[in-house]
Every structure is written in C-alpha cells, then in structure tokens.
Design brief:
With 495 residues, this protein is α/β, with parallel strands linked by helices. Helices cover 29% and strands 28% of the residues. The termini are far apart.
Length: 495
C-alpha cells in the first residue's frame, strides 16, 4: 500500500517536495501541495484532500517540517497497517483538560519533537522514548497527523476557520466516535517553529470550547508498558529478599504470589521480618511457610523501625552465601520478572555496582518511582521521584546509570557493600534512610542503576497508613549529610 502526503503552504517550494520524496523511503508517493496564502482554512483544505487523495493512508503535515531520518513513510504505513489506530501523531496527550490546551499537563503528554528557530535547536521531550511502540492518546498535535481513511468517523470541522484547533477538534470528535488515536516515536522530525500562541489561537480555542465544553476533560487511563520475555543468566548469585511486615496479610501474600508467579529466579531466600502482627496473622504466615515451596522464613520483632530492622536481618539472619540483598516492601507486586532483570544488570556491572532500582507504578498505572530526584531550589532541598504521577515520562527499555539512586521499596545491592557501609543509617526515624544509602554508594565511587524494564506495582504505605510525609528531623539529617559531603552535592545537585 502507498501513501499520500498533504500540506498547505503560502508559497510552493519544489525543494520541500523533493525532501519529502527523498526521505519517505517510498518509490511512489502522492504529494498534494495546496498553495494557500490564507484564503482557506486548514479544515476545508484537509477535507478536500481527504476526498481527493488516491491512497487510504494519508499524512497531513505542516510545510515547516523536515524529517530527521530516512524511510519515515514506510514506518507510518507499517504502523497503520499493523494496528487498529485511525489517527497517529508525534506528540499528544492522554488527557485533554477543560482548557483545551493539550500540553497543559506535562504528566499526561507523550512524544518527542525537535524544534529549530532563529538558529537555535532544542528538543521537546513530552515523554520518554518508546521507539517502535504506539501509545494511546486522546488527541495529537497537527504538526504531523497520519490517518487511515477508512477508519475515520468524522471529518475536519469547517466551522473552525483559520489554522488553529482544527487538529484537536478533529481528534476529539473521532475519539468520541470510537477511533483509536496514538503517538509514535520512530518518525523523528524537526519543526521549524517556536509554536507560540496568539490572539487568533485564543479565538479558535474559545470556539472549540464552545463546542466541546461538556466533553472535557477527556482522559485515558495510563497503560502499563513492559516486556514479559524471560531473561536467562549464566549465573544466579544467591539473593536474600528482606520483607518488613505488620498485619494486612493480603498485601504480603499478594507480594509473595507475584514473586512466585512472575519471577523465575531460582536462587533466593525470603526473610519476613514481622513487626507486630497479631497471633492469628502470624499463624497464617507460619502456615504458608510450612506449605510453600518458596524458601521462606519469619523473624519476629517487637516494633517497626525500617533502618534498624533491615540492618538486623541483613547482618544476622541472611544466608552466609548470599551475594545480594533485595529490600522489598510488603506492598510490592511484581509485574514482570523484575528480580532477574535487576540481577542481570548487577552481573554486567559487578565491580562498580552500588544500588539497583526498578520502575514502580501506582495502582492506576501512573509512575510512582523512576529514580530518586534531589533538587536545590532557593537553598531548599526538594526530594521526589523522577516521573512521579506521570503516565509515560520514562524510557521503558532504559538502564540509567546517571541517577542518584532508587527507593528501598524494591532495591537490590551487593550484601558486602551494604555491610561495609554499615547498612541504613538508623538515626532516620521515618524515611530518607534509603536516600542516604544511595548517596553513600556514590561516595564509595559506585554507580547506582535504575532498570526501566524491571517493573512492579507499589501500593504505597498501605500497611502503616502513612503517606510518605518527610519529618523535619529526617529532612535536616539528610541536608546535614549533603553539607558534610560537598563533593556529592556538587556533582549531583549542582551545589
């Protein structure tokens, strides 16, 4: 199947047509260039083109676009032919807000677009790079729109005269009619525009909102992106999995079931550090220990203290042959074989390996953790997670080695290194002991890794009814650590 390319321009440029022919990678391609000094709207031109185009697979583009790689036309055809998507773009959103501004919420945007303007070049990373995947969207930007004509349910709205909001209206009408819309990542392009709004844009936004007021906001649920392919290792070093637990056995059992079902890692032990469950709950856990094929044991404690108890287990209750420790919250559920994928990174980087973290999601599939983020803002330390609450602000296949570290909710590291550093700092009472541990690894000239293709749910703080609030004492303790380690602060916080 072939492709039709359609664009509107004030002055027809043969060089642009030649560029399209050379870069699309197709021997025969239909190019419909409409010379339009402003007399007709894009909606009316595009509707005319939809009827005139020879081919069912059609690309609408702006005339200030240049393609950054060859064979982009073949990739578009492949996407449209091998999927049920009717509309595809290079930038869009999973949530169109009441304002009608698709890029308003950066936690919901997707795509990557390079810009050039007045000699300057920059990249708008609306999300991570998902390579050959298609991510579902509510609407896309009109800089590049590929459509499968037979799947469309609505044409362009000619009540929107001019050159603004024709794309958002077209997408939303089709989306509401059941057409699948998506963002693609393997058609890199350069948009020679800064993309500023103006009075005409605001006028057309008002018209759009007048039509779609009751349809907004329009939101898609975030979709999990992960690879479930089995990973095989040459060696499987012994891992001690430490799980602190108190009551709510359904969380613990869900965590253990996910380890049993999702992970094929053969060489591990699981140590449940119980910190005050009832006798009935303890009996349920003990019954599981007796019947399960998992290498499982319980160590009882009278109270809960994250740092102190993890240290106690790591130093005194782990198998002597354990090479790795996995600190695992009881409210974790593996989505794929995250353990084996993280151990794989360890085996590839043994000598320089510090901590290894994974991608964690909330129950609504948004990101809970994609690495620890520390930022100094007006001499105040801000502590957060990369991509927090976003849909797709991560690279799903990435192994990052330029990070500060990862949360101890699901954290792998060499046992010898943990013991050498004295474990978690027990001076922390509620949180941030894992942040200091990661920083200590950096101080030891180790590299901390984040594995984007190792994926878990984290049903955060369900056991202790806490929302992760940072206490003033713990915050001050971490700030003091950074003040005492200016080399780390300078390298990772720019201070």
């Amino acid at each position: 199947m072939n492709l039709s390319i359609i664009y509107s321009t004030r002055h027809k440029e043969p060089q642009f047509i030649e560029h399209l022919q050379q870069t699309c990678g197709l021997k025969k391609v239909e190019i419909l260039a409409y010379t339009n000094p402003g007399a007709k709207s894009l909606s009316s031109l595009y509707n005319h083109a939809l009827k005139q185009a020879k081919h069912d697979l059609i690309v609408f583009i702006h005339d200030d676009v240049r393609f950054d790689s060859p064979h982009w036309g073949r990739k578009v055809i492949q996407h449209l032919q091998q999927s049920e998507y009717g509309i595809l773009g290079v930038a869009g959103t999973t949530s169109l807000p009441k304002s009608g501004i698709w890029w308003e919420n950066p936690l919901k945007t997707m795509g990557i677009v390079k810009h050039q303007h007045e000699g300057k070049t920059w990249i708008s990373n609306y999300s991570g790079d998902f390579k050959n995947r298609i991510l579902p969207a509510v609407c896309i930007d009109g800089v590049f729109m590929a459509v499968n004509r037979p799947l469309l349910q609505e044409s362009f709205n000619e009540m929107l005269t001019g050159f603004h909001f024709y794309d958002i209206d077209f997408c939303l009408n089709n989306y509401l009619a059941g057409v699948k819309i998506g963002v693609i990542f393997n058609v890199p392009l350069i948009h020679k525009s800064i993309g500023q709004t103006n009075e005409a844009w605001e006028t057309h936004r008002a018209r759009f909102l007048g039509t779609h007021h009751y349809n907004l906001p329009c939101t898609l649920k975030s979709r999990l992106i992960f690879d479930s392919q089995a990973i095989k290792l040459k060696k499987y070093p012994k891992v001690s999995i430490i799980i602190l637990h108190k009551s709510k056995n359904f969380l613990l059992f869900n965590c253990l079931n996910s380890l049993a079902e999702k992970s094929r890692y053969p060489n591990y032990e699981i140590i449940i550090a119980d910190t005050g469950s009832s006798q009935t709950e303890l009996a349920e856990i003990e019954a599981l220990v007796e019947t399960t094929k998992m290498n499982l044991k319980i160590v009882p404690f009278k109270d809960y203290h994250f740092a102190r108890i993890n240290n106690e287990v790591a130093f005194n209750h782990c198998h002597t042959q354990s090479e790795l420790l996995l600190f695992c919250n009881n409210d974790i559920e593996l989505i794929n074989d995250a353990l084996t994928r993280m151990v794989q990174v360890y085996t590839q980087h043994k000598k320089q390996c510090g901590t290894i973290g994974c991608r964690l999601h909330f129950a609504d599939n948004t990101i809970q953790h994609a690495g620890i983020q520390l930022v100094m803002n007006q001499n105040q330390l801000e502590i957060s997670h990369h991509g927090f609450r976003s849909d797709y602000h991560f690279n799903p296949d990435q192994v990052a080695s330029d990070i500060i570290g990862s949360t101890a909710a699901f954290l792998l590291m060499p046992k010898a290194l943990f013991q050498k550093m004295g474990g978690f700092n027990p001076a922390y009472q509620k949180c941030l002991e894992d942040v200091e541990l990661n920083l200590m690894c950096l101080k030891q000239q180790k590299i901390n890794y984040w594995v984007g293709h190792a994926v878990c749910y984290h049903f955060e703080s369900q056991t202790r009814q806490e929302k992760g609030t940072i206490t003033r004492d713990d915050y001050n303790r971490l700030v003091q650590f950074l003040q005492q380690n200016q080399d780390i602060a300078t390298q990772y916080l720019g201070q």
